[in-house]
Amino acid sequence: MKSLKQFNTFNLDVKCKELLFLATEDDYARFQKISTNKILIGGGSDILLTEDYHGIVGITQNKGIEIDENSSHYIVTALAGTRWHELVTTMVNKGIGGSENLALIPGTCGAAPVQNIGAYGLEFNQLCDHINVIDKEGNNISISNEQCDFGYRTSNFKTKWKNNYIITSVSLKLSKSWQPLLDYAPLFSLKNKKNLTPKEVYDEVIRARKNKLPDPAVLGNAGSFFKNPIVSAEFFNKLFKQYPNIPFYKQDNERYKIPAGWLIDQCGLKGFCIGDAKVYEKQALVIVNKGQATPLDIVNLAKYIISSVKVKFEIDLEPEIRIYGSNGEISLGQL
Ligand SMILES: Cc1cc2nc3c(=O)[nH]c(=O)nc-3n(C[C@H](O)[C@H](O)[C@H](O)COP(=O)(O)OP(=O)(O)OC[C@H]3O[C@@H](n4cnc5c(N)ncnc54)[C@H](O)[C@@H]3O)c2cc1C
């Protein structure tokens, strides 16, 4: 059995039967044709491995960035194994604006479309032109932004196409008329700045993230464990009467997104531990591995959080991360 400890950011010492490193399109095509149980992992920063995996794990390792341009746009293509933050840094250093709000998100470019990564008012789908994939028969296909049905932390790659495609590269389209996105509180201080550059926004995003989020190299974690729940206007108004300080983001469709971290904090759970798994003090949405956490510690803590939020607010929190058992993906309820 091979250890996956360095391939998941919770730093859990879970094992698999076989480990394959995928560096070329041929490697990906061969991996697609394997008919036994298999999982693809990029940076392992959005997964929880709950036990030893009775199958093959492929690690995406093809790296590279190519930049083209026309009169109005840059078209930037990154191979799947390229680190997302490296892509953002490369663009910002070349003066190409548009992706800076997504700086410092861990993981790979190939995983970015899967849950449509987002932060500080920007989501991957706002940058995406198209995505290149290999299907189960080993064919290369180009998929347009519209076909992916991107939503809040979701896309067809996570739902109806789950496990059908391996993403081999992503192509972004960035306008040459850059407009900064400064609608989130940590970026307000930049609003009146003259001649603002993408690099200044990038630096501020990194500063804000470092203040709030634990570095997985120091404290194992997978970022936000839960999605921010989106509720109806009727339900929100009821909550608002009871909790006038409740933070919220109004959505386009008369619904309201509520920060899950706030709900967890209101349950008094910041710093709460089960075994070596802990609710991070600076951001209650993150579960950290203090060092020796077992997968069961993390599962039990996640379940405790879900039931506490349900009892206090009648809201069902859903995991943002993907959870794997010995034979493949599972839900928390199955554990
Ligand atoms: C400290 C921290 C902060 C974070 N902050 C954010 C944030 O601000 N916003 C946000 O959206 N996310 C955030 N995340 C979550 C995570 O970084 C992203 O979801 C990231 O895109 C995951 O990339 P990965 O390569 O690690 O994916 P993995 O965890 O390796 O994989 C995630 C899923 O994608 C699938 N997958 C991976 N690569 C491919 C591929 N090439 N083709 C097809 N499927 C693939 C895997 O099978 C798996 O199901 C954070 C995580 C951490 C640890």
Topology record:
Blueprint: E1 2-3, E2 15-22, H1 25-33, E3 38-41, E4 47-49, E5 53-60, E6 65-69, E7 73-79, H2 84-93, E8 118-119, E9 122-123, E10 128-134, E11 140-144, E12 166-175, H3 198-212, E13 220-224, E14 230-232, H4 233-242, E15 249-250, E16 255-257, H5 260-266, E17 273-274, E18 277-279, E19 286-289, H6 295-313, E20 322-325, E21 328-330
Parallel strand pairs: 2-5, 3-5, 4-20
Antiparallel strand pairs: 1-2, 6-7, 7-12, 8-9, 10-11, 10-12, 13-19, 14-16, 15-16, 17-18, 18-19, 20-21
The chain binds flavin-adenine dinucleotide (FAD).
Flavin-adenine dinucleotide (FAD) is lined by residues 9, 39-47, 60, 80, 105-108, 110-112, 114-115, 117-119, 166-167, 213, 216, 221-223, 322.
Structure description:
With 335 residues, this protein is of the alpha+beta class. The chain has 3 domains: 59 residues, Uridine Diphospho-n-acetylenolpyruvylglucosamine Reductase, domain 2, CATH 3.30.43; 148 residues, Uridine Diphospho-n-acetylenolpyruvylglucosamine Reductase, domain 3 (2-Layer Sandwich), CATH 3.30.465; 93 residues, Alpha-Beta Complex (Uridine Diphospho-n-acetylenolpyruvylglucosamine Reductase, domain 1). Helices cover 21% and strands 27% of the residues. The chain is built from 6 helices and 21 strands. It has a 5-stranded antiparallel beta sheet. Strands 1-2-5-3 form a 4-stranded mixed beta sheet. A hairpin with a 6-residue loop joins strand 18 and strand 19. The radius of gyration is 20 Å and the shape is globular. The protein binds flavin-adenine dinucleotide (FAD).
